[in-house]
Amino acid sequence: MEKNLKQLTNRIHYLPPDPETDRPILSAICGIHQTLIIDAGNSDKHAQLFLDALDQYQTTNYHSVVLTHWHWDHSFGTNKMNLLTIAHENTKRYLENIIDYDWSDEALDNRVEKGLEIEFCSEMIKKEFGVDRNITITLPNITFKEKMEIDLGGVRCVVQHVGGDHSDDSSIIFVEEEKVLFLGDCLYPSIYTQQPLYKIDHVRHLIESIEMFDADIYVLSHELPLTKEQFIGYINALKLICDLADKHQSNHLNLVNELSTQLNRPLSQLEEEIVYCFMNGLSVS
Ligand SMILES: [Zn+2]
């Protein structure tokens, strides 16, 4: 996977995601006066990799790092970033809950057994940090409830809480001048549930919030940036399946039949997965 910094627009650079240890995309928005970083990375190493890459562009005068949500892969690099840290108030609350956790193999396995941690995250943490595991969780310095605006000089960023099934503290960042929307993981299904799930009303509410912003580029944390066309395709599939799940409720067969009739083809793997998540959401409500 690509380990070099990429240029997204005139004023935005990013380090592509790395599925090897579930590293999310890290981005820097460079205003005339200051630079804003989006997400702190999954470890000291990840944060340092990004900061070193930014150094080559002589990026200095950092405003802060904004966390899209509390999950380890977005927040464990905060200590190494050593910057003012901004996050939704729930993000801080969730990080406070895990601040005293022990991250040894034994402790991780124990939490997985008790259902407090997910097998996947546990494996990825072990892989990212190796045996010499020094994890320091750092809390955000500034929190917000709904939204905040940051002016970097010639570039304004709107940070807005949107919630959603993936994590209810999820926030998105819209960069008006560049027409780029950073979505974090907010569109992905829940992970801290027995099965990954989508709830019909949560997805509708989330899409409404996202559609308030008119962007040309959409950045989801664990994939490469999407064009408007690609993003609309993705959102339309999600909306269509959401509507059909509402119509057919737990009748999986009827849902799949109507969906493939409307699309005039068999479902893609992604569509199958989305259907599965809505079925899971319906079974727990
Ligand atoms: Zn996440």
From TrEMBL:
Domain of life, per lineage: Bacteria
Pfam families: Lactamase_B (PF00753)
InterPro entries to which the protein is assigned, alphabetical: Metallo-B-lactamas, NDM-1-like, RibonucZ/Hydroxyglut_hydro
SMART domains hit by this protein: Lactamase_B
Residue ranges annotated for the Metallo-beta-lactamase domain, each copy included: 23-222
Signal peptide residue numbers: none
Classification lineage: Bacteria, Bacillati, Bacillota, Bacilli, Bacillales
SUPFAM superfamilies cross-referenced by the UniProt entry: Metallo-hydrolase/oxidoreductase
Name the record gives this protein: MBL fold metallo-hydrolase
